């Protein structure tokens, strides 16, 4: 049984940490990068309306969905159930740090359903459990900072960092190859993948629906 996020008694001051704000930045950046191809968006899995509110300010049509009615989403949605009623309504479906809250077989099935439902894109993030060294260098005469990230998946470990997760990419039994195979089996192509040196625990994927699925 998935635990409702409102039962965890998270505080905004704790939830909106510097690292999580880095993730919010990339969530928005990846949506903006898709340009005019995306107008109608469904966000699945919410704690606050931060992401959706900003996109609405930029004239996107955003609906929210969650299994937890206490969050007041637009749609009460259980990803382990049939979601075919959403088909054809959204150019992009986004879910950040959501799939790992289900046993892996259910996560795979959810990916397949989401690939069928979205008109074109699926933008996700999942936890990547690694040992890492990240370096960011900036100088006053350059507009851009330079990044270096060295990481080793914790393939010897069986325990996710978060006790609310059934699995995390990188630990024993869940190599990156397995997750990417699941993406391919769902009929999705990786358009972009990304980790930020400041918060490499969140691994972002921009996935595009294969034309054969349409």
Distance between the termini: 33 Å
Q: Approximately how much helix is present in the residues? A: 10-25%
Low-confidence stretches: none
* Biggest beta sheet summary: 7 strands, mixed
Radius of gyration, CA atoms, in whole angstroms:
17 Å
Number of domains: 1
The CATH architecture classification is: 3-Layer(aba) Sandwich
Q: Which strand order do you get reading across the main beta sheet?
A: 3-2-1-4-5-9-8
Query: Could you spell the SSE succession in H and E letters?
Result: HHEHEEEHEEEHEE
Question: CATH superfamily assignment?
Answer: Vaccinia Virus protein VP39
Record field, number of beta strands: 9
Shape: globular
Describe this entry's structure for a reader.
With 214 residues, the protein is an alpha/beta fold. The protein has a single domain, classed as Rossmann fold. The protein is 24% helix and 29% strand. The chain is built from five helices and nine strands; from the N terminus they run ααβαβββαβββαββ. It has helices at residues 12-15, 18-33, 50-57, 104-117, 176-185; strands spanning 40-44, 61-66, 75-76, 92-96, 121-127, 130-137, 146-153, 188-196, 199-209. The strands form two sheets. Strands 3-2-1-4-5-9-8 form a seven-stranded mixed sheet, sandwiched between helices. A two-stranded antiparallel sheet has the order 6-7. The longest helix is centred in the first third of the chain and has 16 residues, at 18-33. The two termini are 33 Å apart. The mean pLDDT is 90.
């Amino acid at each position: 049984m998935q635990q409702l996020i409102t039962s965890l008694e998270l505080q905004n001051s704790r939830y909106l940490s510097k690292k999580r704000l880095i993730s919010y930045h990339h969530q928005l950046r990846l949506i903006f990068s898709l340009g005019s191809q995306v107008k109608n968006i469904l966000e699945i899995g919410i704690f606050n309306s931060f992401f959706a509110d900003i996109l609405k300010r930029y004239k996107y049509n955003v609906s929210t969905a969650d299994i937890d009615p206490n969050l007041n989403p637009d749609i009460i949605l259980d990803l382990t159930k049939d979601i075919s009623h959403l088909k054809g309504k959204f150019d992009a479906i986004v879910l950040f740090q959501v799939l790992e809250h289900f046993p892996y077989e259910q996560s795979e099935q959810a990916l397949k359903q989401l690939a069928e439902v979205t008109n074109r894109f699926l933008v996700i993030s999942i936890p990547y459990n690694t040992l890492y060294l990240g370096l960011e260098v900036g100088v006053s005469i350059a507009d851009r900072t330079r990044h270096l990230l060295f990481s080793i998946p914790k393939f010897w470990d069986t325990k996710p960092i978060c006790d609310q997760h059934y699995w995390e990419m990188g630990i024993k039994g869940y190599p990156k190859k397995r997750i990417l195979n699941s993406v391919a089996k769902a009929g999705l192509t990786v358009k972009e993948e990304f980790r930020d040196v400041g918060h490499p625990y969140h691994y972002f994927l921009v996935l595009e629906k294969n034309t054969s699925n349409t």
